Amino acid sequence: MRKIDRIIKRHKKKGALVPLLQDVMAEYGYLPQRTIERISQELDIPLSQVYSLATFYKSFSLTPRGKYLISVCLGTACHVRGAPRIVEKLERDLGIRAGETTKDSKFTLETVNCLGACALGPLVVIDGKYFGRINLSRLDEVLKDYLK
Amino acid sequence: MRLRCPSDLVKARKLIRSRYDPKKTCVTVCCGTGCLASGARDVAETFRKEIDRRGLRPRVNLRITGCHGFCERGPLVVIYPKRIFYQRVKVLDVDEILSQTILKRKIIERLLYVDPMTGKKIVYENEVPFYKKQRRLIFGNNGRIDPTKISYYIALDGYTALAKVLYKMSPQQVIAEIKRSGLRGRGGAGFPTGQKWELCRNANSRLKYIICNADEGDPGAFMDRSLLEGNPHSVLEGMIIGAYAMGAEEGYIYVRNEYPLAIKHLTIALKEAQEWGLLGKNILGSNFSFRIRINRGAGAFVCGEESALIASLEGRIGEPRPRPPFPAQEGLWGKPTNINNVKTWANIPLIINKGARWYSKIGTKTSKGTMVFSLVGKINNTGLVEIPMGISLRKMIYEIGGGIPNGKKFKAVQTGGPSGGCIPARLIDLPVDYEKLTRAGSMMGSGGMVVMDEDTCMVNVARYFLSFTRDESCGKCTPCREGIKQMYEILDNITKGKGKESDLGLLKELAQIVKDSSLCGLGQTAPNPVLTTLRYFPEEYLAHIKDKRCPAHVCQDLIRYSLIVEKCIGCQICNKACPTGAISGEKKEPQRIDQKKCIRCGACYEACKFEAIRVE
Question: What DSSP letter does each residue of B6-18 carry, written as one string?
Fold first, then answer.
């Protein structure tokens, strides 16, 4: 059985659409169009409804993510400690806007509302690794390792 | 082990306690999210390996706990029974802690906490001012228990309240007790909990649901997460008691997807509670059955609003709906539903155990009990703080928070997240309770408290919060969707030096309309950051509009960087740091900044070690 059918089977009951899409995200890293179509067919839900969910919630993505996911915390504590300038620098250095993926599919840059590690602000997380109390020059050092 | 009656619970507790020697040395390592991000996992693993390697197991226990609250100084290590307090502990310190402190009883000076207010070194956890001034009723056990083992919670009288309720109290008595305690919802609005329960209890339906709202979305707030990570059973116990009182058989915990550790610990806690007969069919041998499911949020701030949360649980997009009917009448799947915040649930066992009378003596006339705040931003002691309602902001910021870093001046404190407001320095003696904060134009919210200093631009902060609510508005009602966007654009213009004086009147008018006519709490409170900054910091708005100047040097279009020739030694560090090549000059000669090329990123300012770059 195909991966997607296994996931659909697991959630084939009322109201489980959000957890279903979460599992698809976990499996594929994004929501491929064919999986959305399949879900709509199998669960007999209008395609528009699946799309509305997929685009309403922030943790769903319709496009594949890069090899490294860079998340910059833009919570209030990080904001007052200068996080916007960190985002600007990353946008400049990677040549993309927040929410986009580089052409070589190496980096996806995203901003998040709060990671709740405010003592470490400004905070950048690259592939689950935390870089706390970051500034522009330290960011250069950190990025160097990933740009290689 | 399955507990079949209250005396089984008492026996189990005795057995657990008899196996535990309180005099035995125990190294506790805080592994809450904050400490983990600072490297606590490696510290804990090194302790484990080293204790084994040295054959210290019979003498030393290792305990991995949830968040202790003092995130600023993490990773934290506390050594019981004396509670020696070590902070910013690194993997390389582990060997020394074992050989010196554990084996030779010597204190390692370098790892002690230095009080920034007095400069004194402090040895024991209970003497650290950050903890000493708090009253940690619901957070206190976080540092004492391993959240992945139910036995720790039971040893500390866990589930006693549940046994009492099931065998000695009727549902009505439980509700009466909660009403008498004066407990109000800790999620933000502060609705009396007992009254909310009564509405749900009285709703006519066989099926009812209860929900724990753990969709903690306010930026700068993380106390709900820390409680779920550090003491999940206290929340479960509260929910089970609530379910008994309201007559619900099914409950949900709606938790943010960004909180993987909380989800993990909750999952373990649910499984253990079930195995012990504290959840599921015939709880503690009674006729009462209740089960709980975990639902992960999918990343939408608006889902913290109860009707949006319910929509999301039902598998739809998180759009709120008009009320009435209230969830207590028509909630999840159309059935009566009660929703409370994580901290509200965690207060319940405490009230049942110690009594409403005891509880209602804590706090102020209208706000009872303690409140947990996450104290963050420009503050020395970032962390989670639990205080009795009614203590002043001054005490929070200076005595517990240790003041403002780098000798800067305190400017404002923002409470209540994007729904709250900014309270200025001159109101620093304001006591913290629901009414006082509301009167000051802000709100209690779920407990975020962001401290701002003289380097924070209040117009920029207001713009920040509006960009947040603009992005998070679900788009269903026009005032919120369009109104916030318009307000944001006006503010954006002001921060770019394109504002007009008439903008201020327009902002106020728009704010009032959005407040009055939005469908849900998100829109109704979104203008608060704008209104409070306009009210308390009008001169900052005017400086941006009239003088085209940002007094805090934050708004990039209104500042310029220049070189102080006398201070520049020509090291050219700034030159290398500049991403646009705007800085030029010979080595060992003062440099020059080309204003046309400068993008005001601040890299030179940060890089210069001689304070030779000035912001104007």
Answer: HHHHHHHHHHHHH
